Amino acid sequence: MDEPDAARQRNGPAAGARMHGLFTDTDTGRLTVALTLSDSCLTIQRISCASPPEHLDLRDCLGSRAHRGESEDQGAQLCVYFYAYRRRWMASGPVRQRDERRFRLALGTEESDEDASLREAERWARAINTARRPEHTHGVFFSEVRRPCGVMVLVNPQSGRGQAMALYNGHVQRMLTEADIPHTLFITERQNHARDLVRSADLTQWDALVILSGDGLLFEVVNGLMERQDWEKAIQTPLGILPGGSGNALAASVHHYTRASPVWGEDLLTSCGFLLCKGVVSKLDLISISLSSGARLFSFLSLAWGFVADVDIESEQFRQIGALRFILGTLLRLASLRIYQGKLAFLPAENECGSDSASFSPADSRLPDHLLAPLEQPVPRNWTLVEEQEFVLVLAMFQSHLSEDLLAAPDARADDGLIHLFYVTAGISRVALLQLFRAMQSGTHLDCGCAHLVYRRARALRLEPLSAPGVMTVDGERVEYGPVQAQVHRGAARLISA
Ligand SMILES: Nc1ncnc2c1ncn2[C@@H]1O[C@H](COP(=O)(O)OP(=O)(O)OP(=O)(O)O)[C@@H](O)[C@H]1O
């Protein structure tokens, strides 16, 4: 049996704690601190002053690392990285903020063996990393990303205002290192590069695919995975999203599902980065979208036609101003408000088990659409046909957020198996429409009492535009214009989230 290190004897566990030991706080110089690690927190007690102990919640801990001392007479260092919620001036609520704590092993002269000191620091780091693993508290399926793991990080350097690489260098790389997650960076060079990469990748090498970009790059990744021969296995690869685009709707949704106050920009990146490093995997709904050409796409976010789709695509020209492009695009489109003619039908969520469900078996065997009839045939009898045929917008949401600051479907969850269908009928005034979008910033648009806004929960839908060719988007990406139908496939993919 190995002799226990002298340092280890000195830092042995106290009663009721996993570990207990004496360290020097490297930030305050000579001050000696006693650290106590329990299953839920790291307690810091400053010995030479009478201040109360500080309890740091391990749920906020991203990781811990040990380093050799800077010189021979110094003990090894223990670094612990916390990202607790704290209030910040001007922020609307508490935000996760980085807080690095460094401690030096307090070794006596007879224990100045560098290796022993490092071993003890490593033992602490391992114990903290084991204790910080998240609790599994809810009953739905979830598991964790296997450790050690390899993560493919895909960055679109052109997304948003072109700041994604700066976000990687300034934040993401550091967080992944702190959490000890090995990763490989892939910088996309063109449209469909990410799609091609994941279509041909050896997925046994990757335990997660992480997208630092807008929703468009994740749309490519999802569809690239679904185009593989082994799509059933491939689509089970955990997907992570970090906001680097201008819309960042899925990233905002993932943050919203934690029930924390809304955050934007780099605070949203920190929140999503934290969730990514915690590595809890939940299910993600995929929505199959069938187009009139026979093409089938897989979506995780939204299907839009009319006002929202027009704003999304028309505002691309203002990409340099980031998320503000949507506000500018909204104002411009309001000025020339259009009416869109079309037919809309949907299967209400509560009717799914009805006897009239379609039993359509398309040639495409990937996630068969058992609720849909062929596009050229009428919809099944248990569907609802919307009487109105003049719309200002039709918007099917599959997640809570339409963009970082538009909470379109506040009750949506990543795997709720629902299409949150909104439509606004013709006749709404410009002022009322603007008010709806303003209310959507706080998710209160359904409380506006607007008679032109309709919201339904559905499992499937069909939309047949009758207007002259225009814009239709899936996950913010423009798709072929024409009749389209969609069905939700509950929890068909996996998402790293809360
Ligand atoms: N290097 C590149 N140059 C040009 N386009 C690229 C490159 N890499 C990826 N793309 C394409 O850019 C498009 C937009 O990407 P993405 O959605 O990630 O950013 P965004 O549009 O700024 O964000 P959001 O969707 O949140 O508004 C995608 O269709 C993607 O295929």
UniProtKB/TrEMBL annotation:
GO terms for biological process: cellular response to growth factor stimulus; negative regulation of apoptotic process; sphingosine biosynthetic process. It comes from Onychostoma macrolepis. This is sphingosine kinase. GO terms for cellular component: cytoplasm; endomembrane system; membrane. The keyword Acyltransferase does not apply. It is found in: Endomembrane system. It is an enzyme of class 2 (transferase). InterPro entries: ATP-NAD_kinase_N (IPR017438), Diacylglycerol_kinase_cat_dom (IPR001206), Lipid_Phosphate_FormReg (IPR050187), NAD/diacylglycerol_kinase_sf (IPR016064), YegS/DAGK_C (IPR045540).
